[in-house]
Amino acid sequence: GQCPHARVAVWPMDTVLGSPAAALLAGAIAVLLLPQGLAVQSEGLWALREYLRRSLKLLTEVFTQGPFFEFFVFCARKCGRGRLASPCRPPHSLQAQAVSAAELVICWKARAPLDGNPFHEERYVCAWRHAKDPDTEDESSVAAVWREHEVLDDECGCDEADRDRWGMLLSGLPEGACLRLRLCAQNRHGRGEWSEEVEIDMPTGLEAAAARRSGARALACSRVVVARGGRLCLQCRHAQPATSSVTYADVVCPPLFARECPHGPFCARCHKAMSAQVLPSCICRALIGTWREVA
């Protein structure tokens, strides 16, 4: 039987729904969920709906920039163990500087996921090989073999001023060699695409010692190269996937500088930025008449 002393606490629903705060909250939710076709019929209702949307957006931005949200994201990442992450996108703006005869400082920028997932996390894989001459060496040669290094969490760090910029120190490299490097991101979804490739001429031991005596901080800097089968945007110098289309420009008159300029290729972002100008011009300062897309 039921204990005579047992009591069931029931919150009176008329108290909850009858409070002014609950009524205002329910009314605000109803206005926000109101279809746009009905809201435009009343000017006052439309103004109230837009005001509530702006207020909600501002409240969301303030909440997501606070320490409580950062702590919540940190806990969710630790508990999720990478299951909440999104597919990786290729890093970009890859740069390398030689700090000794066998060490490189590598910097890159991470690409945020397309869905804006705040719980996204990824690690990186750095690969390097000897730069080969495609006319004399085939793909099966020793120089064409990529040596991969999985970057651990304690081996890299991000810039405090720019949270998307990362860097690491890569050691154990051959002295006096011309090396080619690339980078990719990986997580539970697998590896993403590789970044653009850069080349750097490693100094010898004598060159490194002479540079240190002269006070030079960087002994050598990298340069962006076009990978086999790849294309670089003429403006931003980012590698373009072989499956995507690029845009070339047909100029109106001969260029003043760089007469051998191919006027492309341009990626979609740079093409859009140059098309927005009043007088779009190529890197060679030639006036562009028309654009043509190449697959």
Automatic annotation (TrEMBL):
Protein known as: Fibronectin type-III domain-containing protein
Ranges annotated as spanning the membrane: none
Gene3D superfamilies per the UniProt record, alphabetical: Immunoglobulins (2.60.40.10)
Lineage of producing organism: Eukaryota, Sar, Alveolata, Dinophyceae, Gonyaulacales
InterPro entries cross-referenced by the UniProt entry: FN3_dom, FN3_sf, Ig-like_fold
Recorded superkingdom: Eukaryota
